[in-house]
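Late entry, evening session. Most of the bench is empty. Finally got around to the prediction I had been postponing all week. Sequence below, unchanged from the version circulated by S.P.
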Amino acid sequence: MEEPIVIGKDKFRIGEDETARRELRVVKVHDDVIQLQEEVHGIIALVGASSSVNIKKDELKNLIKVVKEQFGWTDICE
């Protein structure tokens, strides 16, 4: 697998004295498969059978740009 490309970063408040950091990354797994990785620091993680990634509009635009320019997916529309 290739090195992940960061497409978004932010911080948000989760309590009076605690701030969490979030980083959203994308990595090419195969020619037609990508993986979004959301890493959050500062919160206790819950374990479950499903997972989700929150993505902002500007992060989605960055994702589209990366898969076109870095991964060669020329058939992706904006």
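Two things to note before I forget:
The radius of gyration is 14 Å.
The CA atoms of residues 5 and 25 lie 5 Å apart.
Will write this up properly tomorrow.
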